[in-house]
Amino acid sequence: MSYLDNVRVFVRVVELGTLSAAGRDQRVTPAVASNRIKELERHMGVRLFNRTTRKLTPTEHGRVFYDGAVKILEAVNEAESAIADLSRNPKGAVRITAPLGIGRRLIASGVPEFHDRYPDIEVRLRLSDRNVDILSEGIDVAFRLGILEDSNLRMRGIMNCERVLCGAPTYFEKRGTPRTPDELITDHHDCLLLRYPGSKEYYWTLQTPEGVRKYEVGGPYDSDDGDVLTQWALDGRGIVNKPLFEVKQYFNEGTLVPILEETPPLGAQLAAIYPHKRFQDPKVRLIIDFMAERCQRLIGRMLAEPAPARMQEPVT
């Protein structure tokens, strides 16, 4: 077995907590991952993990070795990247993540094209609407809609994205159309919220004549999948807060209609977020450049469709 491969598995076991998770990450079986850890322990003559039925936690020796192992792998990656940059033939795996909506519409469909252009680069894509911890999960690049909050990360802005409130005509026929943001609350409208552990969308931030205001809206159900919220809105189950490019086609079809256009939600920036050192890797630069251009082109195309007609007099 390659000693370096053993070290890579060891690092991911520490970070992910189980052999099965580390094995999936490194594309080996749990049995192979276990053998690599045992090989390391035999080589060093110490136990690296305390084992329970559910989780492996590093021993004191394991914690010390982890700190050094991370530095070793970073040095190897930087050296490989430097050589690849010189040869203009980048190789290896790049791990990227994105929310479900933009991931399905913009990122996933571009992965095969990226691989065709750079066949020696493997792309490992993870889609999730939860707030993925980039550092602990070993992510190279996260494509996100939002604000950079972690100072240990860097951000490259791709484009600003307008957001809208909308719902199905059938919902507004039954419940009436809110004329002001306050009526979202006073009339107890069903607002469809994106929620997951650590989620901050327990309110909507709207742009009003008095400035930006937060509204603590609510509804009978929520989800951690943004596309589920869109489908509920299409089914007439409530009002949703979405990036315009995600729902523009439904406006054109008339299956969703915008509301409160004079007081829209605060927009969001689509950006590539990555750890400080990762941008030195040519694979990371290439995939950010590729996906940034692709997102700008596809979103521009979506928004270039005929603009939806403004709503008629709200139903009361």
From TrEMBL:
Family in the record: Belongs to the LysR transcriptional regulatory family.
Pfam family, one: LysR_substrate
GO MF annotations in UniProt: DNA binding; DNA-binding transcription factor activity
InterPro entries, sorted: LysR-type_TF_proteobact-type, LysR_HTH_N, LysR_subst-bd, WH-like_DNA-bd_sf, WH_DNA-bd_sf
PROSITE patterns, A to Z: HTH_LYSR
Protein name, as recorded: LysR family transcriptional regulator
Organism: Sinorhizobium glycinis
Domain HTH lysR-type: 1-59
UniProt keyword annotations, A-Z: DNA-binding, Transcription, Transcription regulation
Listed PANTHER family: HTH-TYPE TRANSCRIPTIONAL ACTIVATOR TTDR-RELATED, HTH-TYPE TRANSCRIPTIONAL REGULATOR
